[in-house]
Amino acid sequence: MTLLRLAMASPIVALISAPPSSAQAPEHRWLPEPVLVASFVDEDGTLFGDPQEIVALPHGAFALADRGENTIRAFLADGSPAWTFGRSGAGPGEFGSIQDIDVSPAGEVLVLDRRLGRATILDAATGKQVTGFSIPTGGQYGILPSSGRGRVLVIPEGEKDKTLWVAVSEDGAALESADMPVACAHGLACEAYSATTGSMGAALAFRWSSKVIFLDPGGSVRFTIDGVEGLPVPDVNTESTTIPGLGNATVTRVDRSAGTATAGLTGDELNLYVLFGGSEEEERRRIVNVYSVATGDYRGSFLFPNSLAGLAILSDGRLATLDRDYIPTVHIWELSW
Description:
Low-confidence stretches: 5-25, 156-162
Mean pLDDT: 81
Radius of gyration: 19 Å
Shape: globular
Helix content: under 10%
Order of helices and strands: EEEEEEEEEEEEEEEEEEEEEEEEEEE
Oligomer: single chain
């Protein structure tokens, strides 16, 4: 999962395919309470490091992106360490800045390093590097694996009226692309999280709006929905303000009254799980809304007892969540319908 800022200049475009068959529910439909089955706690700060993102690996395992030490840390289903890869630097096996991590249906871990302009591909079972490729410079990126080695969602600078889904060869050459819909009129309001949905493709969910875009494995749009939260794309306002030591300045920002729709995203071939940011303290990052990957239909919502910093649906159907409030902790939950 990654957070992308989509730089757009055009209004919302029409859907490329028909909308989902049923209308979105007007309010939450609560699913059975998640059951906590395991917790893995980094009590001395050496197990997880500074985890910022969690992804699912095959066989119920999971991996954390430690952006403090630029390391990928993998764990077995029982929470025991499996392997680590990477450190800070610019040489082989090193990262300048981990921007995104995802896992392909074939079980390869793809790590995107925007600072060094390259993607590294690891074997999920061993943590050994399989290969790597450079990425085009400029724009915003999030890596979304599909049937090939990897596809990089590229929003090129200087072409602010569209986004491109670009397949990248191992030498960094763009192989193919497909236009994506414009999601909003201003890039600040268009920050999006992305996640793969197995062989079904991928999805984008937006930070400030409950809009969700479902993509096929080739990057074309299957359909777009407005999620259950019903948050529209917010306005972007330009305001005059005073900055201490600098004087008067003009600041452009998202409408301060806008609620946060998405704070995390994960999916598999059946369901997309969207972590609702929440506008009230009692619900902040505690609600996970679930949508059918096949149709976009709203299936219901899970309410968690604590706020979540990240989530990943594991290969065995359980949900792993990352807690960063105090001591970094990974919780494993059984979900029922």
